[in-house]
Design goal:
The longest helix has 34 residues, at 362-395. The chain has helices at 6-9, 21-31, 57-66, 68-77, 124-132, 181-187, 210-217, 219-223, 270-276, 282-290, 321-324, 333-356, 362-395, 406-421, 425-440; strands spanning 13-17, 36-41, 52-54, 89-95, 108-114, 121-123, 140-142, 146-151, 157-161, 166-169, 171-174, 197-209, 226-230, 233-240, 245-253, 265-269, 294-302, 312-313, 316-318. The strands form four sheets. The protein has an eight-stranded mixed β-sheet, with helices on both faces. Strands 7-2-1-11-19-18 form a six-stranded mixed β-sheet, with helices on both faces. The protein is built from 15 helices and 19 strands.
């Protein structure tokens, strides 16, 4: 079990609001750098909503920067495409709408996107379980719903929670996700960017035993990642649980409002999902038929309509989905959260050395750290929010100027995914640290 050193406590006391992937990876990275940190999570225990989440090369770079333990935990639970010939494939893109009976259970192949790692999917809960093992006792505090943050005369920040409890910290980092309370405190509750917006896409999510999927769809379709394209809908299928299970995410688009913005998920039935995909190709219809009877329907919200004007205010800052909640159409949201954690950890570690040397005050160092973090991360992360929403429309042949022109769609998707994958996260962090040094020099 890792412990937090006394030396680190002399530099900063950092409060992280939220214990999802963004919060827990940042906490581990800070503990790894001997910086005192506490996590305040509103749930009764750590937990991730949803099943499969994918990580690409940029994310694994960031994991290694944060902590070897994070990367090792990922490797332990990651599932790749099961065919050796598909190891580098992110997704095979196929026509899920049209069907040629002469092709049997094969859909028309459209194009393929690949990177150095290929498909790397984990079950969110299993990945989080591995992360929790790296967090020492006493770091995590549960059932803590943040209400307000005020500044004391001493310079400490006082957090007040819904249960009446309070806590002090030198800085507050909001990793509290798409419905972030910290975002509201920074921007103001009346700022339109303080609330996520419905994208008019929703998704049915389910799991299919791989043996069952293989019998109906054929082995290739069951054990390797596929993106089934079509008009106003698309389906992702990819292996999880070390190839024992097929994760299914079936997206639909319409102009209707979401019925209850307080709840981003609603219970649904397989029969409803089957109706959504009536008239689609054989494989997509069979995928719907293979799902369990009771499903969750997820509303897809993001922060694209009202991009944040800032990620920080004084010594309060946003990281992860709290700053740049995105649709899942790049498969990069969680990976960008870990990029944030890597950059933030490197910045805070550098700031701590400068505070200990007496070169700069604690509060000045923290404000400069968060300014440097915003400079390093805001452009890239806000680009992702917009590009991911575009991808969702490209998959569904509804993007303006692209329609169902597969050649144009492939070119756009290839270029945008290269931006996600082909980045040097360590260089990004170093440039952020160099910027911080200039700010405090």
């Amino acid at each position: 079990m890792t412990s937090q050193s006394d030396e680190g406590k002399q530099a900063f006391d950092i409060a992280i609001i939220g214990g999802g992937i963004a919060g827990i990876t940042l906490a581990i990275a800070l503990i790894n750098r001997s910086i005192n940190v506490k996590i305040y999570e509103q749930a009764h225990a750590f937990g991730e909503i949803g099943a499969g989440v994918a990580f690409s090369p940029n994310a694994t770079q960031a994991m290694e920067i944060c902590s070897d333990g994070i990367y090792q935990g990922f490797e332990k639970v990651a599932t790749k495409n099961q065919w050796a010939s598909k190891k580098g494939v992110w997704f095979d893109f196929v026509d899920g709408y049209h069907h040629d009976e002469s092709m049997g259970n094969q859909e028309k192949f459209l194009f393929q996107l690949s990177n150095e790692l290929g498909q790397n999917a984990v079950h969110r809960a299993h990945f989080l379980d591995e992360m929790v093992k790296l967090v020492p006792e006493g770091v995590s505090h549960f059932r803590k719903h943040l209400d307000v943050v005020t500044e004391e005369e001493s310079g400490k920040l006082r957090m007040k929670f819904h249960d009446g409890s309070e806590a002090l910290a030198d800085a507050v980092i909001g990793c509290d996700g798409i419905k972030s309370r910290v975002r509201q405190l920074i921007l103001g509750e009346d700022d339109p960017a303080s609330q996520p917006q419905y994208t008019h896409k929703y998704a049915y999510r389910g799991l299919i035993p791989v043996k069952k999927a293989t019998e109906v769809l054929g082995e290739e379709n069951a054990v390797n990642a596929k993106l089934h394209m079509g008009p106003n809908k698309h389906i992702l299928t990819f292996p999880v649980n070390k190839g024992e299970t097929v994760n299914v995410v079936a997206f639909c688009t319409n102009s209707d409002p979401w019925s209850d913005i307080r709840h981003l998920t609603m219970p649904s039935k397989k029969s409803t999902a089957i109706k959504e995909f009536e008239g689609w190709g054989r494989n997509c219809v069979e995928i719907m038929n293979l799902l369990e009877d009771n499903l969750d329907c997820w509303a897809i919200f993001d922060l694209a309509d009202h991009p944040l004007r800032t990620y920080y205010k004084g010594r309060i800052v946003l990281s992860g989905d709290a700053a740049h909640a995105t649709t899942p159409h790049h498969g990069a949201g969680a990976g960008f959260c870990i990029e944030d954690s890597a950059v933030m950890a490197e910045l805070l570690a550098h700031a701590a050395t400068r505070v200990k040397s007496g070169k700069v005050s604690k509060n000045q160092a923290l404000e400069a750290t968060f300014a440097a973090f915003e400079t390093a991360r805001k452009e890239r992360t806000q680009w992702l929010v917009q590009s991911s929403r575009m991808n969702g429309d490209l998959y569904e042949w509804r993007a303006e100027g692209y329609g169902s022109d597969i050649e144009k769609i492939e070119k756009e998707l290839r270029e945008s995914n290269e931006i996600v994958w082909n980045v040097d996260v360590r260089k990004m962090a170093k440039e952020a640290v160099d910027d911080l040094e200039k700010r405090i020099a």
